[in-house]
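tmp note - DUF3108 domain-containing protein
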Amino acid sequence: MKSKLLSCLTAAAALLAAHASAQDQVSMKLDIIAWGPKIEGLSLKTGGETITAQPFIYTKAVSYSGSSILELHQSTAAAAATTEASQSSAPIPPELAKLRAKDPTIVGLAKLPVGSRRATVLVAPAASGTYLTMVIDDDPSKLPFGKLRIHNYSPLKIAMRCNGKTQKELKTRDAFIVEPNSNNEVIYELAYDEKGTWQMQENNLIPVRKDEQVQLIVLKSDADFFTSSDGSKSGFLQTVTLRRPAKELTAEATP
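out:
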């Protein structure tokens, strides 16, 4: 998987030590999502119940209580097999390397938001049997039900015009929340900045039900999830919509 987000994920991993204290504790539900191919055999502690991270889709949320620095575990053989195709050349973060010297089943770290009740953890294969992570705070105070949050996780600056309102530009890792129209829809236009020239990507419509958390992620990926049977992709950039019903632990992603 040759995701162009790896540099962004690497930067997030490098900030773990600077923004976290080992004393910070959290209690929350997590949705673990693969940024690329399916990842099997993950766990949140040594010998713990295993998790399968599906590509770009919510499955069953897991409960977690403990340090705000989440440790992802996986057998060394499984980690090596899953990450062997990664093109990441980034060095293993020092905090992770130190932990792996004592326990090589620790394959990734994620900084969880203190005080949040819900988060999404994106997991991308990296170098030497390890993973990079990106955490999205999905507490209802940050992602209200009945609204749409848009993220730019592509390496390019993008522009979004929603429901005919003023165009908003987003750099990599920027996000903003959109109020649906009277039909509970967000009609959007997406463009990206290619060497100083705006290129139109797509026009689309997203239903936003009042009892759902909904977010649109814009990215650049050649993952099989975005590839049709004839090998083509939907556009230069890719988009995925994540939906989380208010009273359920499962949701769907739509490419």
